[in-house]
Amino acid sequence: MRADRLVSALLLMQRRGRVTAAELAKELDVSVATARRDLEAMAAAGIPVYPQPGRGGGWSLVGGARTDLSGLSANEAQALFLLVGPAAAASGDAKAALNKLLRALPRTFRADAEAAADATMVDPTPWGERERGRPEMVELLQAAVVRRRKVRLTYTNGVRERTERLVDPWGLVDKDDIWYLIAGTERGRRTFRVDRIGAAEQTGETAERPDDFTLATAWEEVVGDVERKRSRTWATVLVETRHADVLRHRFGRHCHPDGEAADGRARIRLASPTPLDVARNLAGWGGLVEVLEPVSVQRELARIGAELSARYAEVGADGDARPDGPGRRDAGHPDRNARTDEDDRHPSLEAGWRSPSDAPGEPRVMPPRRAPERASGSR
Predict the structure, then answer these.
(1) From residue 44, how far is each of 1, 10, 12, 17, 69 by CA, in Å?
(2) Within 10 Å of residue 78's Cβ, how many Cβ atoms?
(3) How far is CA 97 from the centre of its chain?
(4) How does residue 293 score in pLDDT terms, banded at 50, 70 and 90?
(5) Is the model's pLDDT at 95 over the cut of 70?
(6) Which helix (H) or strand (E) holds 217?
(7) What is the spatial distance between Cα 324 and Cα 315, in angstroms, rounded to a whole number?
(8) Neighbours of 293 (CB within 10 A)
């Protein structure tokens, strides 16, 4: 008896509880005689199936609902379906595989597993952004990883240098909806951003992969290296305790509490790649944050402040000095000009942009806005 027919027959019997030779023949697309021989062969081989003669009879599994072809426990089945269920909604192949696995589970597990598959939905699109699908390039590279085939790709790095490379694809990582390819090259292991791969072609050459390579370990090393680069400049700041959580959200793992100042403000250590990156992220706070050190960050903040002061120095307090200038305010709606407690509770730091650096997981920084050039005497 062929292995695929054996598994199909067992799944069918488990799903229906009892099956006749004619039903099995129809399901497996074989003759009734072949189906009967298969059932007898299963019984002879020690598989717990038995026949029930007479009207309404057929072949059944001994304790049918307790036969588990998947080997999963009830908790394992629920955990798997909770994890895979959301992905199956976006992939026909994943949904088909999930249905097959569901049929392989004991009947007593199926209801909870099916409910787990529908219990969660994942919407990866942030508020206000367009829906993003998985890049087609990812599927091509995934196929190359699975088939162990070298890939010839055209790649543009962060400084716009375009090169062609022959790589051994080892694995793909989805980091915050940005895909990365970890691959072996003639210069050792390298990490490529998939959105910078202009073209890729799977070759017929077999890709080499170290025996001790694991994708999780490799990516952990990549993350560690990138995060070290993202935290080259550390600064110590003071901020009112009520704003500390916003700073922690802004700087993530590069924000650490460092006690309390004499005046009750929270003392915090935070980091970015450069003094300018730290200053850009803090400039929007104005006087709500005081930078104690280093001097390099203080200087960048002073420079940004001086640029803004020079640019808007001609704007009067009422906003009427330059009606056409960028500092104009709505004099007809005083409520729009008034500062509220809400301004202090939520400093305007939520909007960010990603720097075009070549490093994976690049930091989000806040560049100063460029005001329109003046007609004469512009810098």
Answers:
(1) 12, 15, 19, 20, 19
(2) 18
(3) 23
(4) very high
(5) yes
(6) helix 215-230
(7) 10
(8) 11
